[in-house]
Design goal:
Elements (H helix, E strand, L loop, with lengths): L4 E5 L4 H13 L4 E5 L20 E4 L6 H11 L3 E4 L6 H6 L1 H23 L7 E6 L23 H20 L3 E6 L1 E3 L8 H10 L4 E4 L5 E6 H14 L5 E4 L4 E3 H15 L11 E4 L14 H7 L7 H14 L1 H9 L5 H6 L2
Parallel strand pairs: 1-2, 1-4, 2-3, 4-5, 5-6, 6-10, 7-9, 8-12
Antiparallel strand pairs: 9-11
The structure holds nicotinamide-adenine-dinucleotide and 2'deoxy-thymidine-5'-diphospho-alpha-D-glucose (DAU).
């Protein structure tokens, strides 16, 4: 059997680093090539534990640079792709939509083109695209997103992800490329950039800063521990049916304000503060433009067909997450000071 040289894009980001770590450690016979251009969201410190592994390789390349992409495919004889690299933050997409078109749409099409040309015979190669539940739009207070829910993206971010999903399906249909797509709900856990709700609140509670809650805090998200997402990706990569879509989610819906209050309560206890101290930091701010009301994933297809189950309950996952941020003060300090951006020069010689 052909040895696998798997290109994982966005491996220095939040979810990507957990996928890279899982694959490098679990599959010593695979070569794992992490391609990432290290935007503000890319942090090579996330991969410190595995960076010396003989089956791990890093390539600082932008998805918009086609000759560099071609060179990476040739250099590492790439056999499969797991594509996570993206602009991922909804608020940034509202202020700069074009950056999302460039990376998420054009970057994905570049990668599809380079993979198709390099592989030639598409029979034995997989292009696995990681996507989001936001492509399905916003739910009111009933029902779930299933794999057949019509696409209805509402933000520039979700519009760009929906577009990239459509291109992946178009390449499967038109060129018979082997593809699979997963659409996952909100992830939380270690290594998430502190612009997203949960790490932002953990950071601000620790530093006695305001906790900005958009609107009334009544929007609902469906949360999944990031390592459970990485395990689902491993399962779909190895056992998913080609051409299929799988939704991934934790059946774990929370109103934003309830999450923020839970974080306050747990952190007061951990930091030895009087109960109720951190809740005083909650500050209601102007709502996000076009704020989707509710996301909720029906994950029964991946459960029934592939036997996937989330391993962690939310309370346990949140405890682990808070503990990780408190124990990894250097990581958080390096991110907030910008020092993490020096890691590449210091460890890879620029
Ligand atoms: P992230 O923002 O933490 O990481 C993205 C990574 O991609 C970074 O390391 C960044 O440097 C890299 N990158 C960005 N633009 C690039 C480019 N042009 N060329 C090369 N590399 C580039 O994102 P994340 O939260 O880990 O999300 C990863 C993927 O999962 C994304 O595709 C996202 O849409 C999807 N997703 C995220 C969530 C979530 O809750 N975070 C949920 C479902 C799906
Ligand atoms: O559903 C999957 C998506 O989840 C992913 O595709 C995205 O990449 C990821 O960023 C995430 O999008 P959200 O917009 O749901 O995540 P965020 O952490 O930005 O916000 C979660 C909720 O909290 C949302 O309703 C907005 C709200 N919020 C967010 C921030 C940053 C606040 O109330 N205050 C804040 O400061």
């Amino acid at each position: 059997m052909m040895k696998k040289n798997i290109l994982i894009t966005g491996g220095a980001g939040f979810i990507g680093c957990h996928v890279v770590k899982l694959f490098v450690e679990k599959y010593p016979d695979y070569n794992i090539i992490n391609l990432d251009c290290l935007t503000y969201a890319g942090n090579l410190e996330n991969l410190r534990e595995i960076e010396a592994s003989p089956n791990y390789f890093f390539e600082k390349v932008n998805l918009l640079d086609v000759p560099e992409l071609e060179a990476v495919f040739a250099k590492h004889a790439i056999t499969d792709v797991i594509h996570l690299a993206a602009e991922s933050h909804v608020d940034r997409s509202i202020s700069d939509p074009l950056a999302f078109v460039k990376t998420n749409v054009i970057g994905t099409v570049n990668l599809l083109n380079v993979a198709k040309a390099y592989w030639g015979d598409l029979e034995n190669h997989l292009f696995y695209h990681i996507s989001t539940d936001e492509v399905y739009g916003s739910l009111e207070d009933g029902g779930f997103f299933t794999e057949t829910t019509p696409y209805d993206p509402q933000s520039p971010y979700s519009a760009s992800k929906a577009s990239s999903d459509h291109f992946v399906r178009a390449y499967a249909n038109t060129y018979k490329m082997k593809t699979v797509i997963t659409n996952c709900s909100n992830n939380y856990g270690p290594n998430q950039f502190p612009e997203k709700l949960i790490p932002l609140c953990i950071h601000n509670i620790k530093n006695n800063k305001p906790l900005p809650v958009y609107g009334k805090g009544e929007n609902i998200r469906d949360w999944l521990y990031v390592v459970d997402h990485a395990k689902a990706i491993d399962l779909v990569f190895h056992q998913g049916k080609m051409g299929e879509t799988y939704n991934i989610g934790g059946f774990n819906e929370w109103k934003n304000i309830d999450i923020v209050q839970l974080l306050c309560q747990k952190m007061d206890a951990k930091l030895g503060r009087e109960s109720g101290t951190s809740e005083k930091l909650i500050t209601y701010v102007k709502d996000r433009a076009g704020h989707d009301h509710r996301y909720a994933i029906d994950a029964s297809k991946i459960q029934k067909e592939l036997g996937w189950e989330p391993s962690l309950q939310f309370e346990e996952g949140i405890e682990k997450t808070i503990d990780w941020y408190l124990e990894n003060e250097d990581w958080l300090n390096n991110v907030t000071s910008g020092n993490y951006q020096k890691y590449y020069e210091e460890h890879y010689g620029g």
